[in-house]
Amino acid sequence: MIDFDGDLVVGWRDDVDLGVAAARREGGESPAHVLELLDRPAIARADRSG
């Protein structure tokens, strides 16, 4: 599970969802930028300070 706070999650999720949906419609793979976003490590809430 990837967890983000703030406005970033809206743009990030929309971009990933649209990329995945487009790839599924075309029967191909997800775009490279979507795969890059999915490969980023998640930051756990417990590890955040401040």
UniProtKB/TrEMBL annotation:
The protein, known as: Unannotated protein
